[in-house]
Write a structure and sequence with these properties.
Elements (H helix, E strand, L loop, with lengths): L4 H16 L8 E2 L6 E5 L6 E6 L12 H14 L7 H4 L3 H14 L3 E5 L2 H12 L5 E5 L4 H8 L4 E5 L4 H10 L6 E6 L11 H10 L3 E5 L14 H4 L8 E5 L10 E5 L1 H10 L1 H5 L5 H16 L2 H20 L10 E7 L1 H13 L2 E2 L2 E2 L9 E6 L6 H17 L7 H8 L2
Parallel strand pairs: 3-12, 5-6, 5-7, 7-8, 8-9
Antiparallel strand pairs: 1-2, 2-3, 4-10, 9-10, 11-14, 13-14
Bound molecules: pyridoxal-5'-phosphate.
Length: 415
């Protein structure tokens, strides 16, 4: 084998295409733990800068919670650092099963199986339960990990327009004769912060004898009045056949994921899901931390209530200041700028003002839909939000976009 000059040149040219296309992702080094206040080295090699973090998935502020850290330490001491095994050989501790039961109880499902990540849960679920006789019908905006999971599955595939129930019904009719029909959606859509219409989806799935899978990674722990997730928000607890979710966001933010739902489906995953069978078990230290997260969430809804308050303050503040937002009812608040370069300039100016929020543009979001995606946390105090709001307004004024309509922003900056 040789890494020839020709191959190296090929990769260099592909990388420079990415750079020239303006979509090269530069990582920013954080020198502190995850929190509302972080210390960032950016660009690489520059002095550390204290900034307010407005773009983490640390929705409940539990990523560095002292009780979670203590529980993780205790788990580390009691059960060791690693298990050096997959679950079915010698990688299952009692605490793995305990966590599965806690998730089941919290989500209101029948059973749960842990995966190394939600990406792995989504990579494993479809092929474990479907064959070429079956059909997967997915919302057009589902997460990349679901798309990859569907690619690994031999079942047929179709899509429906984003959150469009008429279109979903057409597709259910079209595929009425398939053996298993599995409808697939995110609970909360990460780029827009909107919520799936699960009540209507449950009704349609009942009517056409279809299964429903919801990826609730951006909802578990805080959406719904006790934070169970989008199914609680939509009043359909117990009616979702399959929920996949992550422990890498609100639920402590370390890593790990799961499939939770119908007992037989969970058992099929235990027998057949390849990322479960062939990837290492979740480390005891993480299991212990996540168990503590569920203790905290079960004891009180204080954190999700604070998050809800923070998010409405933030949404209202930006709106009153004259920004255009994507409508929604979640802590994901996208500030629409439409133009890719403007989103990058805006993000840089915010950073210089001590606010960390990333600009997204094509292909992460549709062409002409560039934005700054802000994410609110229960770890934010009012002073964080007020400062961030003031800085957003300052940068908004600098670019002359406050109070403008979408058309006016596009006229000014192009799309
Ligand atoms: C973040 C995310 C995932 C991936 O979760 P990991 O546990 O980090 O792999 C999967 N699905 C959705 C909808 C997500 O937002």
């Amino acid at each position: 084998m040789s890494y020839s000059g020709k191959t190296k040149d090929l990769y260099l040219s592909l990388l420079s295409d990415i750079r020239n296309g303006g979509i090269f992702k530069e990582e920013r080094f954080i020198h502190s733990s995850q929190a509302a206040d972080i210390e960032v080295e950016f660009p690489s090699g520059s002095d550390l800068k204290k900034v307010i973090n407005m773009c983490s998935n640390n929705y409940l502020g539990l990523s560095s919670h002292p009780e979670v850290i203590r529980a993780a330490h205790e788990g580390l001491e009691a059960r060791g650092y690693g298990m050096s095994s997959v679950r079915f050989i010698c990688g299952t501790q009692d605490i793995h099963r305990e966590l599965e039961n806690r998730v089941t109880e919290f989500l209101g499902t029948e059973d749960t199986i842990l995966f190394p990540s939600c990406m792995d849960a989504n990579a494993g679920i479809f092929e474990a339960i479907l064959t070429s006789e079956d059909i997967m019908i997915s919302d057009r905006l589902v997460h990349a990990s679901i798309i990859d999971g569907m690619r690994l599955c031999s079942a047929q595939h179709d899509t429906f327009k984003h959150s469009n129930m008429e279109h979903l019904e057409e597709k259910l009719l079209l595929h009425e004769n398939k053996r298993i029909k599995l409808v697939i959606t995110d609970g909360v859509f990460s780029m827009d912060g909107d919520t799936a219409r699960l009540d209507e989806m449950v009704r349609l799935c009942d009517k056409y004898d279809a299964l429903l899978l919801v990826d609730d990674s951006h909802a578990s722990g805080f959406i719904g009045k006790t934070g169970r997730g989008t199914h609680e928000y939509c009043n359909v607890v117990g009616k979702i056949d399959i929920i996949t979710t992550t422990f890498g966001k609100a639920l402590g933010g370390a890593s790990g994921g799961c499939v939770s739902g119908r007992k037989e489906i969970v058992e099929m995953c235990r027998q057949k899901a390849r990322p479960y069978l062939f990837s290492n078990t979740i480390a005891p230290v993480i299991v212990s931390g996540v168990l503590k997260v569920f203790d905290i969430l079960s004891a009180s809804t204080e954190r999700r209530d604070k998050l809800e308050k923070n998010a409405s303050f933030w949404r209202a503040g930006l709106k009153d200041a004259g920004f255009i937002l994507k409508e929604g009812n979640t802590p994901i608040v996208p500030v629409m700028l439409f133009n890719a370069k403007l989103s990058q300039d805006f993000s840089r100016d915010l950073y210089n003002e001590g606010i960390y929020a990333i600009g997204f543009f094509f292909p992460v979001v549709p062409n002409g839909q560039a934005r700054i995606r802000t994410q609110i946390s229960a770890g934010h105090e009012m002073h964080h939000l007020q400062t961030a709001l003031d800085k957003f307004v300052k940068v908004g004024k600098k670019h002359g976009i406050l109070g403008l309509t979408k058309e006016q922003i596009i006229e000014k900056y192009g799309q």
